[in-house]
Amino acid sequence: MNPLFQALLLLGLTAYSFAAPAADSVRWCNKSPQEQRKCEALKTATGHFTCLEKSDTMQCIEAIKAGMADAITLDGGDIYEASLANHDLHPIIAEDYGETSSDTCYYAVAVVKKGSGFSFSELKGKKSCHTGLGKSAGWNIPIGTLVSEGILKWEGPEKEQIESAVSRFFSASCVPGAAKDVYPKLCELCANCARSHMEPYYDYEGAFKCLKDGKGDVAFVKHLTVKGKHKIAPQ
């Protein structure tokens, strides 16, 4: 297949509220025990951080809005949500991977195992692995492309939520953050469907692991996730 879609998106951005942190200490909100441990290590090394742990991205966004925290690390899709008027957070830092330029961009790709024998237009009925509900490379871009190309049939939000259409399109999925009780097929391949690292198939590496473990037929990630991996074909 041809390369899918290019997303000129800010990578690994930090959403930061307008409210300035007290003195020179930044209150960092973390979405998992793993993030919390990294924050605590940074705090020990620099002395300029305090660490707050919440269960998911939205709780951290709400904590910043409420003045309980100052900053959080987000991907492009979550930055859009955080920037809406009811949250009013703003990106201040972009991660530079040092590839060919200083531009913070990546390609959103659909990845399958070599020899799978199906194309992007033949994904209906397959099992899918996503980085998370509302995330750029793992949800917004691939699902938007499937809809815009007429591969996934959806009549719009006035008729139904996009999650309903995706549930009908794929035979089973892992979409961390989906409402498990409302859209059980979107959580069928997940361990617990949490939109945090409490779910082993969350985020880029998690979605790739979902594919590698044989749970899904296709994973939607960024191209940097699969660079250097073997027996995997980005589509």
Automatic annotation (TrEMBL):
<keyword id="KW-0408">Iron</keyword>
<feature type="signal peptide">
    <location>
        <begin position="1"/>
        <end position="19"/>
    </location>
</feature>
<dbReference type="InterPro" id="IPR018195">
    <property type="entry name" value="Transferrin_Fe_BS"/>
</dbReference>
<dbReference type="GO" id="GO:0005769">
    <property type="term" value="C:early endosome"/>
</dbReference>
<dbReference type="GO" id="GO:0005615">
    <property type="term" value="C:extracellular space"/>
</dbReference>
<keyword id="KW-0479">Metal-binding</keyword>
<dbReference type="GO" id="GO:0005886">
    <property type="term" value="C:plasma membrane"/>
</dbReference>
<keyword id="KW-0732">Signal</keyword>
<dbReference type="GO" id="GO:0006826">
    <property type="term" value="P:iron ion transport"/>
</dbReference>
<dbReference type="GO" id="GO:0046872">
    <property type="term" value="F:metal ion binding"/>
</dbReference>
<keyword id="KW-0410">Iron transport</keyword>
<dbReference type="GO" id="GO:0019731">
    <property type="term" value="P:antibacterial humoral response"/>
</dbReference>
<protein>
    <submittedName>
        <fullName>Serotransferrin isoform 7</fullName>
    </submittedName>
</protein>
<dbReference type="GO" id="GO:0055037">
    <property type="term" value="C:recycling endosome"/>
</dbReference>
<keyword id="KW-0406">Ion transport</keyword>
<keyword id="KW-0677">Repeat</keyword>
<keyword id="KW-0813">Transport</keyword>
<dbReference type="Pfam" id="PF00405">
    <property type="entry name" value="Transferrin"/>
</dbReference>
<feature type="domain" description="Transferrin-like">
    <location>
        <begin position="26"/>
        <end position="235"/>
    </location>
</feature>
<dbReference type="InterPro" id="IPR001156">
    <property type="entry name" value="Transferrin-like_dom"/>
</dbReference>
